[in-house]
Structures are given as C-alpha cells and as structure tokens.
Amino acid sequence: MQWFFENTGKIKPIPWPADFGDLMVLELVWEEIVGMINQKGNKISSEETLWKEITRCWSELFEEEVYIGGLIYTIPVLLNKVFNNHGDWAIQNV
To answer: InterPro entries this protein is in (predicted)?
Structure first.
C-alpha cells in the first residue's frame, strides 16, 4: 500500500468500460442460477415462483464452500484472460 501512495500521480489509469461483464463474479453466479432454472425445465408463471426458484438455486449453490472458493479463484484467471485478449472479454461467448 505504501508503494501505491508513493507513486500516486505516476500511475496512468487505463480506460475501462463501465460494464465489466464476465469479470464480475456475481454475473457468473446469476449465469449459473439461470442455467439451473432452465435445466429443471419448470415453467415460471409468476414473480413469486421465479423468486422461489432463485432462492432455491442460490441456497443450493452456496451449501458448499467449494463453490464460493472456486469463484474467488476465477478472478485472477479471468483478469489474465482479459490481459491476453488485449482488454477484450475474458469469456468470448458473452
């Protein structure tokens, strides 16, 4: 942290879009929830049913610490992919 404050003003920020898309871990969670709901194949006929399904999927995902840990470990991998893609999307099918 000391290095950062000593070099403030020397660091040139790069332009970055407001939408981080595939770098936002929460986006990956929502993508997983949508996949789980679609895989189950139930028709969602009301907002109440939708929220029940979202809650069910959320609980199922976070029952195991492995999922949370996996999400945390994806961040450096995704950042590396963005770097290798010269700032383009980490996940090309987004």
So the answer is: RNaseH_sf
Closest by Cα among 60, 61, 42, 39 to 50: 42
Q: Could you report the per-residue pLDDT of 34-69, keeping only the tens digit for each?
A: 999 999 887 889 999 999 999 999 999 888 778 877
Closest CA to 24 of 32, 14, 15, 12: 32
Q: Are 20 and 9 in contact (CB under 8 A)?
A: no
Whether the pTM exceeds 0.85: the reply is: no
